[in-house]
Write a structure and sequence with these properties.
By secondary structure, the protein is mainly alpha-helical. The chain has helices spanning 3-10, 13-31, 38-56, 58-73, 104-117, 127-131, and strands at 86-92, 95-102. A two-stranded antiparallel sheet has the order 1-2. Helix 2 packs antiparallel against helix 3, helix 3 runs antiparallel to helix 4 (58-73) and helix 4 packs antiparallel against helix 5.
Length: 140
């Protein structure tokens, strides 16, 4: 297996994590008295789009997966029961300044995503990157 093929397959790791989490979410809801929240429905709707994008164009799919993880971090979507939002804030006098607001598991998933797919972001500010974003790449 070539080095490029290994890098290509590493891009699927965050997607596989989301798929497993979605399966666990569905199983948990079906076997308990829990109901789907709108955040779960958004997540389960966006997930097939991400999967389809990986079959269509890999580079676009990696970017879309990053957007999905950011949306999850900011609680727009979720793959967990119970749906929890963590907040960390600092009190300065009478003012409360929020430092963190979101789902902390998505922070871990974003870290895994950035480690696995960092090479897609090294030239993101170049015009050439955006010119070739819709072309298929050969990872053999």
């Amino acid at each position: 297996m070539t080095k490029n093929k290994i890098k290509y397959l590493l891009d699927f790791l965050p997607l596989i994590i989301l798929i497993v989490s979605a399966i666990i979410l569905i199983f948990t809801i079906e076997t308990t008295n829990e109901d789907f929240l709108w955040e779960h429905i958004v997540g389960l709707t966006i997930l097939p789009i991400n999967i389809g994008l990986f079959f269509w164009r890999h580079k676009i799919a990696v970017l879309a997966l990053g957007i999905t993880l950011i949306l999850g971090f900011f609680t727009v979507l979720s793959f967990y029961i119970p749906f929890t939002v963590n907040t960390i804030s600092v009190n300065i006098g009478k003012d409360v300044i929020p430092i963190f607001y979101g789902q902390d598991i998505f922070l871990l998933w974003l870290l895994i995503y950035l480690i696995a797919s960092w090479r897609h972001f090294t030239d993101i500010d170049l015009k050439e990157y955006w010119k070739n974003i819709d072309q298929k790449e050969n990872y053999d």
